[in-house]
Each structure stands twice: as structure tokens, then as C-alpha cells.
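Lab channel / #folding
Pinned by the channel admin:
"Please post every new chain as: sequence first, then the C-alpha cells as a reply. Keep commentary short and put observations after the output so the thread stays searchable."

First post following the new format, from NK:
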Amino acid sequence: MEANTANMVVRRITNVPEEVEVMNEANSRLIWTYMQEAGGMLMGKLPPSKHHPTGRNPYA
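Reply from TO:
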């Protein structure tokens, strides 16, 4: 399950380097949007862990 979830996120962000050449305000917002989308896709899909008793943070 972890590999499948990771593949979903990787597929979404693999084209980021092609779209972002210089880190300016607009590109910073674009990267932030990608990060939020990736965290949203991971919501409820991370396996439980004894190291995270209150649940895992998909946005971390």
C-alpha cells in the first residue's frame, strides 16, 4: 500500500522541475499547491504507526 501511495504522489510531481526553473513568488505558490495536493492525496491512506499515536500527518 505504501508503494502505491508513493507512486501516486511521484507521478503528480515529476513534471515540477520542467515547469519551475526559477524560484520566484509565482513558482513558490505553484510548488505550495503541488505540496497541498500531494498531502490531500495521502489523507487517510498512510498506514498506522506506533510512532504516531494520534495519526500520521500527510502534509508533513
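NK: The two ends are 19 Å apart (CA to CA).
TO: also worth noting, The helical segments are 2-13, 16-19, 25-42.
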